[in-house]
Amino acid sequence: MGNLLGSDNNIQKPKLIMTGLDNAGKTTILYQQKPDKIENLIPRIGFLVEQFKSKQFEIFAWDVGRADRCVYIHIPKDSNYDGLIYVDYADKERMEYAICELQKLLIIDEIKDLPLLLLINKKDPCQVNIQEIALQFSLEKLCKNWHIQPCSALTGDGVKDGLKWMQKQIK
Ligand code: G3D
């Protein structure tokens, strides 16, 4: 893993997709990683994919739901992704919507076999019942390799642990 985690810009970094509903905390999480570089990709038809480069990862991020069908068309197809991070905060009112959007992602060829890190943001770890969340998202059925990590993007709690899990899967 040494090279993957190195800060040399010439070294190819693992490519991750980070998505989830708007307001889930994706931007806060990404800025907390102190990215070296942030670029807006494909700012077409009101839909935005942002590319974040940090020491560890290259992350492509967008809101699911907002652009609906367009999202699948705009995923950079020439990229080989190494993992999917789905950010949610288990808000009762939007839970069904968040689950439905993840399910739509997990049938896309480029995405369906990627390790999935489900970050349950805006939470103290002790507030989160991991088994209940796994059941609600049907992760056992939908995904081969998944991990649920409660976190707080504001304090950073849990975020590193989640990313460490992801690194191990890519190894
Ligand atoms: P997004 O990029 O997924 O759309 P953002 O989400 O990162 O923009 O976050 C949306 C709002 O949630 C922001 O508040 C942000 O500060 C807040 N937020 C993100 N992470 C946490 C967290 O862990 N705990 C709490 N309490 N709030 C969080 P504003 O007010 O700026 O819209």
Fold and architecture overview:
This protein has 171 residues and is an alpha/beta fold. It has a single domain (15-170), classed as P-loop containing nucleotide triphosphate hydrolases (Rossmann fold, 3-Layer(aba) Sandwich). The protein is 32% helix and 25% strand. It contains 8 helices and 7 strands; from the N terminus they run H-E-H-E-E-E-H-E-H-H-E-H-H-E-H. The chain has helices at residues 2-5, 26-32, 69-74, 95-105, 109-112, 130-136, 139-142, 159-170; strands spanning 15-20, 37-44, 47-53, 58-63, 83-88, 116-120, 146-150. A 7-stranded mixed sheet has the order 2-3-4-1-5-6-7, with helices on both faces. Strand 2 (37-44) and strand 3 form a beta hairpin. The radius of gyration is 15 Å and the shape is globular. Residues 1-8 have low confidence and may be disordered. Guanosine-3'-monophosphate-5'-diphosphate is lined by residues 20, 22-28, 121-122, 152-154.
Output the CATH topology.
Rossmann fold
How are the strands of the biggest sheet laid out side by side?
A: 2-3-4-1-5-6-7
| Distinct ligands | guanosine-3'-monophosphate-5'-diphosphate
Largest sheet: 7 strands, mixed
Count of discrete alpha- or pi-helical segments spanning 4 or more residues: 8
Mean pLDDT: 83
For the record, the CATH class is Alpha Beta
Question: Per the principal axes of the C-alpha atoms, what is the gross shape?
Answer: globular
- Specify the structural class: alpha/beta
The CATH fourth-level homologous superfamily: P-loop containing nucleotide triphosphate hydrolases
CATH architecture: 3-Layer(aba) Sandwich
How many domains? 1
End-to-end gap: 6 Å
Q: Strand-residue fraction?
A: 25-35%
Low-confidence stretches: 1-8
